[in-house]
Amino acid sequence: xxxxxxxxxxxxxxxxxxxxxxLLSRYKDDATAFNALKKGTIANKGxxxxxxxxxxxxxxxxxxxxxxxxxxxxPNEMQVAAVKILPIEVVVRNIAAxxxxxxxxxxxxxxxxxxxVEFFYKNDDLGDPLxxxxxxxxxxxxxxxxxxxxxxxxxxxxxxxxxxxxxxxxILVDFKVEIGVDVKGKLLLADEISPDTCRLWDKAIADPSxxxxxxxxxxxxxxxxxxxxQEVMKRVLAA
Length: 239
Hints:
The chain is of the alpha+beta class. It has two domains: 5-81, Phosphorylase Kinase, domain 1; 84-224, D-amino Acid Aminotransferase, Chain A, domain 1 (2-Layer Sandwich).
């Protein structure tokens, strides 16, 4: 049973529990894009993303990666370890898509020679700007050791997610993760892994619009958004 509401974000609400080291994360149907300039809802998104994230967190734990996931307790809720989220969004790109195409003039869909890890300052008022290691140090967002750990952890997650999504007949284009620090100072993968935070393309479809299976369908007004999330969930749970 949930307690006091600690925080409400764009996609989830965090509540206290009877244990100060455990929180309840409730997934919402709300959908936002472009730093919340575009808003809407996706039918049953909370339940679908909670199921997807729960399954993937457990998969990553089996691969030896520490996450904040404890257990799923309802269709749209999971218990998670209480962590302090580092104010850095870590993005890993395997294929050029989205903002990097605008920033660097890359062609949409261009494979990258190797996975690219980027840091973004988690600050809605500033539009979550791209930052370097020097910015991380200057703003005291993480220690140099933590910054190095974030990059390696992101690459490790990427390697395992590519393998997992390949089994789902999906291409992992890119994804965003948030990392938290637990009471022992350990870095844990937090937030979620879902079509909200990953770009996923159907391996069997060549059409650039039809193959999109993630929140880009909402961003680009492509339609069939809930259906795409439902298909991703079906494949993830069967993998």
